[in-house]
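Ticket #323: bound-state structure for adenosine monophosphate.
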Amino acid sequence: MIALGIEGTAWSLSIGVVDEEDVIVLENDPYIPKEGGIHPREASQHHSERLPSLLSRVFEKVDKNSIDVVAFSQGPGMGPCLRVVATAARLLAVKLKKPLVGVNHCLAHVEVGRWKTEAKNPVSLYVSGGNSQVIARRGNRYRVFGETLDIGIGNALDKLARHMGLKHPGGPKIEELAKKGKDYYLLPYVVKGMDFSFSGMVTAAQRLYDSGVAREDVAFSFQETAFAMLTEVTERALAYLDLDEVLLVGGVAANKRLQEMLKIMCGDRGAKFYVPPRELAGDNGAMIAYTGLLMYKHGYQTPIEKSYVRPDFRIEDVEVNWD
Ligand code: AMP
Ligand code: MG
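RESOLUTION: The complex was predicted; output attached.
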């Protein structure tokens, strides 16, 4: 069976085609803001302008008649962006006369990670622009054991970078700067039970920079603090749930220092650490296609009248009936 998946919850516009074994095609046309952060309306305009040509690129590489299922990211995400993607997916499904499957974006991150690594029943740390969650499966649901109380870690890194004059996306730039940092400055370490918060830290780090601390040291101090918070909560979830695998997913999974901290923690506990290939860790169409395929094989379909967008769609809302 072959599935096509469209991702477009925020900045990433991406179409993937997969079969049960592997990714066949993955084409991306991301929205990159000229200045500032991601503007939902501008991003959605970008998506609607670019979707037709992106789809043509995909159909140059795969025969459209080979597609068995059309999947799309139904949420969570930015309303205007989700609407563009849902509209395109509905049209495509009707035109190809194929079933439609609305996919939860967070679930797709976790499932593509399980597909492309050896992780079987991991604690997943999902870290991206808009989301930061510690997720694990209990019975027939994935549950969120801890999450950010305000902004996602990626968004926090992007905000801090922007304040220091660096362009979006700031995460990779902060990572480069942090490698050259020497002095650690104390920042608020905010873990409340299993939840955490980044917005106060961003403000404190911005103040450090404004007071004349070098960008490298600000970046270093920020990463060390924020990533320690994420590692702490992930470790606690591992211990409580008595699991022995950690899966790191989301755009921020590319960060080598975060990977290193989690690896050390896993090593100390005798747990295994997994991270999918970079192009499948961040937002991408292949994860939507794969999860759509998995769901379809297990009896899921989204009738057109139920294919409305779900900006607040939670991973817990999906009943999981596969292994
Ligand atoms: P996603 O929404 O999952 O695609 O993730 C996008 C976010 O990942 C953005 O906020 C980026 O700044 C962030 N990001 C990408 N690469 C890195 C990196 N190497 N270190 C930290 N953050 C990163
Ligand atoms: Mg994401």
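RESOLUTION NOTES: The pocket of adenosine monophosphate (ligand 1) is lined by residues 10, 12, 128-129, 154-155, 157-158, 169-172, 175, 250-252, 254-255, 282-283 (CB under 6 Å).
TICKET STATUS: resolved
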